[in-house]
Amino acid sequence: MSLSLIFPRCSFALRILFSLTLCIPTLGAIVFPLRDTASDTPAFKAAFLASYGVNSQVEPTLSVTDKLLFDKILPYIVHHPITAIEMIKQETTKDANPAFDFLLGNLYYQIDQLTESENVLRRALEKMPDFLRAHRTLALALTRQQKHSEATVTWRKVITLGGGDAQSYGMLGYLYLLQNYYASAQTAYEQARMFAPESEDFKRGLAQCLLATGQHQRAVALFDELIEARPQERDYWLLQANAFIALERHSDATANLIVVTSFKNASAESWQLLGNLYLNASLQEKALSCFLSALQAGDKPQPQASLRSFHNLLAHSNPSLTERYLVALKRSWTPAQLKEFAEPLAIAEADLFLANGKPASAIEKLQPIVNANPVNFPALQKLARAYSENNDTPKAVSHYERLLLQNEYKADALVELARLNVRDGDFKKALSQLREAQELKPRETVKRFIEQIEKAIARQN
Q1: Hey, what's the torsion of the CAs at 262, 267, 268, 274, to 10 degrees?
Q2: For residues 137-174, b (16+ Cβ closer than 10 Å) or e, as one string?
Q3: Which of 55, 100, 139, 145 is most buried (most C-beta within 10 Å)?
């Protein structure tokens, strides 16, 4: 049983930090297996078996009788741990020297009976609270049982008792990282690397802490080392891309994602991230190609993520490219998905109709949605715009006036009503609406609009 380092999604998943106006898909949780510090590695096993030896500097000490029993059990420890367990249970009592509780706890740990290991180690510590080796094996057992809070306290106790080494600091960093205590995890990993600077686990853990705490340049350097040692680890490329984006090194982030998408079975998220970077660079055809590849990826993007790609493409590309994507998107969905996401899909189609100058078709998509749910304000806002562009001013005004009752939409609705009044030649009413909108939500564009209306009124006088 090996430990896994879980990189939670809620802490510092990949974020696009450039000028796209819509939500960008993020990299999901990354699960890293511990490699050089895992409990099934040869180095760990060798160190663990060495802990069975009697350390005269660490209490408890063995009496002559205890030493005879220990020597009797010792030959069975490595290759016949179950036999050793039975011998201890037969020849000792619960009041025996805590060294035998420790030995029994180690043996249970060795055969993956972690609950039993924890129980007898706690018994040893009741007898000898500062028994360092018992604390260390207990910390390992708690860590593998994912009792993160208890394990953290126990590793700190190991260090306090003088057991500060690569393992204890590294495991403490690992646990802090799992609990999103990034600054503390960074400190622990830096201590661990003093003992084992080449450890991949410690480099990776530290790099993740650096990302989480905004130390992106240092993170880039560490990921360079990790990628050089293990170029097939796609998540190293992705996490380094995250650091590049934060540093506004978008071309470097793009290069990383090109590598990631060259791997077999590249994820949908990777393709979507690369597509968004291409959009940011005004490479719309390449962006479309990436979004289409995401639809064909083995892990299939969630419908919400596919719709975000649609809206990003529509906002930063031409309608014909977006229409090609929408056709492919609809073909990629199952009948159940088409039914479940019928409303957001209809709104997306309406957006495309509006972009193509077909407001009447947009009205056909949006009116049933608003009729079914009059408080669907995003759809109501789009419907008002569609009526406006279809030159149906009364209905446009009616729908915008409904939006005036919602604070979130009031400023924008006032601006649109002002546009309609300008179109009808009522500059004074438009000016009043624009000034009210500017008080609610100050914007440079509205300020310029007000100035133009004021000039127009001055010319009329």
Answers
A1: -40
A2: bbbbbbbbeebeebbbebbbbbbebebbbbbbbbbbbb
A3: 139
Is 122 within the bounds of a domain? Answer: no
Collapse the DSSP code of 5 into the 3-class scheme (helix H, G, I; strand E, B; otherwise coil) and give the result.
Answer: strand
Half-sphere CA count of 68, side-chain side, radius 13 A: 4
Distance (Å, whole) CA 175 – CA 265: 31
Provide the whole-model pTM: 0.76
Contact 280, 307 (CB under 8 A): no
352, part of any domain = no
In sequence order, the 6+-apart residues with CB closer than 8 A to the CB of 190 are 206
The radius of gyration computed from the CA coordinates of the chain, to the nearest angstrom, equals 32
Specify whether the CB–CB gap between 276 and 268 falls below 8 A: no
Within-domain flag for 450 = no
| Upstream peptide bond of 60 is cis (omega within 30 degrees of 0) | yes
Task: Report how many domains make up the chain.
Answer: 1
- Kindly tell me the burial class for residue 60, based on how many C-beta atoms sit within 10 Å of its own C-beta (0-12, 13-18, 19 or more): middle
Containing domain of residue 289, as a range? 264-340
pLDDT tens across the length of the chain (461 residues): 333 332 222 222 233 333 332 233 333 334 355 666 665 666 655 555 555 554 544 567 888 888 899 899 989 988 999 999 999 999 898 889 999 999 999 999 999 999 999 999 999 999 999 999 999 999 999 999 999 999 999 999 999 999 999 999 999 999 999 999 999 999 999 999 999 999 999 999 999 999 999 999 999 999 999 999 999 999 999 999 999 999 999 999 999 999 999 998 899 999 999 999 999 999 999 999 999 999 999 888 899 999 999 999 999 988 999 999 999 999 999 999 999 999 999 999 999 999 999 999 999 999 999 999 999 999 999 999 999 999 999 999 999 999 999 999 999 999 999 999 999 999 999 999 999 999 999 999 999 999 999 999 988 87
φ/ψ (deg, to 5) at 151? -65, -40
